[in-house]
From TrEMBL:
<feature type="binding site">
    <location>
        <position position="113"/>
    </location>
    <ligand>
        <name>Mg(2+)</name>
    </ligand>
</feature>
<feature type="binding site">
    <location>
        <position position="22"/>
    </location>
    <ligand>
        <name>substrate</name>
    </ligand>
</feature>
<comment type="similarity">
    <text>Belongs to the KdsC family.</text>
</comment>
<dbReference type="GO" id="GO:0009103">
    <property type="term" value="P:lipopolysaccharide biosynthetic process"/>
</dbReference>
<comment type="function">
    <text>Catalyzes the hydrolysis of 3-deoxy-D-manno-octulosonate 8-phosphate (KDO 8-P) to 3-deoxy-D-manno-octulosonate (KDO) and inorganic phosphate.</text>
</comment>
<comment type="subunit">
    <text>Homotetramer.</text>
</comment>
<keyword id="KW-0460">Magnesium</keyword>
<dbReference type="InterPro" id="IPR023214">
    <property type="entry name" value="HAD_sf"/>
</dbReference>
<dbReference type="GO" id="GO:0019143">
    <property type="term" value="F:3-deoxy-manno-octulosonate-8-phosphatase activity"/>
</dbReference>
<feature type="binding site">
    <location>
        <position position="20"/>
    </location>
    <ligand>
        <name>Mg(2+)</name>
    </ligand>
</feature>
<protein>
    <recommendedName>
        <fullName>3-deoxy-D-manno-octulosonate 8-phosphate phosphatase KdsC</fullName>
        <ecNumber>3.1.3.45</ecNumber>
    </recommendedName>
</protein>
<dbReference type="InterPro" id="IPR010023">
    <property type="entry name" value="KdsC_fam"/>
</dbReference>
<dbReference type="GO" id="GO:0046872">
    <property type="term" value="F:metal ion binding"/>
</dbReference>
<keyword id="KW-0479">Metal-binding</keyword>
<keyword id="KW-0378">Hydrolase</keyword>
<dbReference type="InterPro" id="IPR050793">
    <property type="entry name" value="CMP-NeuNAc_synthase"/>
</dbReference>
<dbReference type="InterPro" id="IPR036412">
    <property type="entry name" value="HAD-like_sf"/>
</dbReference>
Length: 177
């Protein structure tokens, strides 16, 4: 993948990646069983991209408007350090996270898919969206994935950051050994 210089510079500064869940880590669909239990589907390649970031020393977090035990379980499986759920107004959680991590906004990437993500997309150093995100947010992002939410968008963002930081070859070398 060839990156434009501005995108490369933005990705090279990232120390924390924050993600929305519905429409980013999932395909934006909710399923309910007859018993009222909610089901979601997570794409394992997205999860592996998150693991690769963490192994490369880049922290991860989620800020999502909905609350779900499934999300808690998946984030625990992936060892995601910062988890904010049930947050309809995401900006206060983002500001709390910035203070907790001691980071500047330009050191943070955020991937969101809808207008409620605009306050964060407008503040971070690298704003991203899945291919099937709400079209009206496209003017406010630096990177639009070629993949839809819940089907590789997060993985593409993870790889972009690792490549910009010169860490991708180490990832590949590990698996080629």
């Amino acid at each position: 993948m060839t990156m434009n210089p501005s995108l490369h510079e933005r990705a090279a500064r990232i120390r924390l990646v924050v993600l929305d869940v519905d429409g980013v880590l999932t395909d934006n669909r909710l399923f309910y069983g007859d018993n009222g239990v909610e089901y979601k589907s997570f794409y394992t390649r997205d999860g592996h991209g998150m693991v690769l970031l963490r192994q490369a020393g880049i922290d991860l977090g989620i800020i999502t408007g909905r609350e779900s035990e499934l999300v808690t379980r998946r984030m625990n499986d992936l060892k995601v350090k910062y988890v904010y759920q049930g947050v309809p107004d995401k900006l206060p959680s983002f500001e709390h996270l910035m203070a907790e991590c001691g980071l500047q906004p330009e050191e943070v990437a955020y991937m969101g898919d809808d207008i409620l993500d605009l306050p964060l997309l407008r503040r971070v150093g690298l704003a991203a969206m899945p291919a099937d995100g709400e079209p009206s947010i496209r003017p406010y992002v630096h990177f639009t994935s070629h993949h839809p939410g819940g089907r590789g968008a997060v993985r593409e963002l993870c790889e972009l950051i690792l490549k910009a930081q010169g860490k991708w070859d180490d990832v590949m070398d590990f698996y080629l050994r």
